[in-house]
Protein: CobQ/CobB/MinD/ParA nucleotide binding domain protein
Amino acid sequence: MPKVVSIHSYRGGTGKSNFTANLATTVALQGYRVGVVDTDLPSPGIHNLFSLELEPTDKTLNNYLWGDTPIEETAYDVSANVGVEKNGKLYLVPSSFKADDIARILKNGYDVKLMNDGFRRLVKELQLDYLFIDTHPGLSKETFLSIAISHVLILILRPDKQDYQGTAVTMDVARQLKVRKMLLVINKVYSTLNRDALKQKVEETYNENVAGVFPLSEDLVQLASEGVFCVKYPEHPVSQEFQKVAQQIQEA
Structure:
């Protein structure tokens, strides 16, 4: 049965899109058919990580939401860009980064039900095993949709007081929406912190499992969003942590 996985954070700057790209790629490299949808319509950018140039393209998630094109026609096969071969496939549905398109979305919004229908059609038409949704930070009706239809919700937080408080609010909403499975990921952890102690503290605070604890990595920062980190540095401890998270999603 296909799984829908939403990756969300209460605040921006948590590394959510980078996390989504690396996790989706990790799963696709294991031979699965994987789709990624950039629903961060006000501030899209995950296409850069997959080395997808949007200048020559004219079909994005925005076009689907405006009724211009079927959603499967907005999905780009980026498998070759990240070295996914054989049975694995990786597709990306990008959002438009054109200023006029972003302004139109911010002004008029979009039909939330249409987005939901699009997710289902995408899974069917592309025969996906996994659909990863890169959400817009914070809580809105659009975010509620992604959370509500997810088989797995991954919440990313940093060791930061505002992140802790915002994550608590998000988890309360997710529980009210009866999300089937929640996993926490702690990102950008300073080297001076005890990762095991931090993991235990967060699990006890929220009564949910921490799927991964990721260090604040200079190697990741230096890549500057030019490619997927786990592909360029497959033996790196950060890439190994993505393997652990991927395994827990598959078992969920």
About this structure: The longest strand covers residues 182-189. The chain has eleven helices and eight strands. The mean pLDDT is 92.
